[in-house]
């Protein structure tokens, strides 16, 4: 057995299950804010495309994906991030993935070598736990960058000796769970730093299309400003953008040399996207109407949160994403007591972070995922208000 498996920590939802074991909530319908799984109906054009292309079950899918899918992805990314014509070559710079999660994990296995002296994989803290697991199973040491008051790490404060040991940097913007997005100048700094110190910049931008005012800046725009995709990999997903997590559809875009090696790895892994999902994905990347409607739905839910909880807790609409990252004191106690009194489930922030550099950025927080229908979210938020008023 791989000895590194014993170093993996329990996934947040396993820890949540243990925390709530033996708690007997009241006879109210469960409202689950714990998991970031979009629950909007799948767009009709996606469903229709899957049905239309089910004949693809008779074909082995190709790791590189169909030309039509890669062209649709390149066209979307070029529009979204205002890229020069031809900057993204669908043949060399795009690789479909079964959601961003599996690609974010496997990129560390395929493209890093802990024996080279580059023994660190850097990640924000709090973080998506896939980053930590990927680092450990790749034989690297996770190095946690605590998020500041801004909701993102201060990347400019990282010491040169840490950058020198860095094999790969995971960046999440907008960030899960804080919702904070990097600015264009931050991306410019990270692109330049990746090239200066020779590490891979893995930009997880799966929440980039859930925003409320200004579209978040992206790493591909910074790469275009620099004139090169060297050392840059951008990860995107339809799970959040189009509310189809069950389709497991995303892509990686960037450095052609890195993607050629990653494609070889994935050929052996055998995780090509089914043809009918490819067809549906191409349709989704080509349509913005359903995404605009989705953003309006999330805006309504954040407005409801501010209305219902704003006088009791500091509720701020994030730059992007669909999470409330609430400061509540003891996050585990809050989660357990809320479940016991109101049958509402959220996630303690301590399960999404680690103690590092003398601080633990999640211990006083809880994450609330506003992913359900508006009426269900309102009901859950009202129950949280009642809990706060009674047990504060």
UniProtKB/TrEMBL annotation:
InterPro entries recorded: Aminotransferase_I/II_large, DapC_beta/gammaproteobac, LL-DAP_aminotransferase, PyrdxlP-dep_Trfase, PyrdxlP-dep_Trfase_major, PyrdxlP-dep_Trfase_small
Domain Aminotransferase class I/classII large: 30-368
Sample GO molecular function, one term: pyridoxal phosphate binding
Cofactor: pyridoxal 5'-phosphate
Sequence intervals crossing the membrane: none
Keywords: Aminotransferase, Transferase
EC numbers, comma separated: 2.6.1.17
Enzyme category, top tier: transferase
GO biological process, one term: lysine biosynthetic process via diaminopimelate
Keyword tRNA-binding: no
Gene3D superfamilies to which the protein is assigned, alphabetical: Aspartate Aminotransferase, domain 1 (3.90.1150.10), Type I PLP-dependent aspartate aminotransferase-like (Major domain) (3.40.640.10)
Pfam families named among the record's database cross-references: Aminotran_1_2
PANTHER family assigned to the protein according to its UniProt record, in alphabetical order: AMINO ACID AMINOTRANSFERASE (PTHR42832), L-GLUTAMINE--4-(METHYLSULFANYL)-2-OXOBUTANOATE AMINOTRANSFERASE (PTHR42832:SF3)
Name the UniProt record assigns to this protein: Succinyldiaminopimelate transaminase
Organism field: Igneacidithiobacillus copahuensis
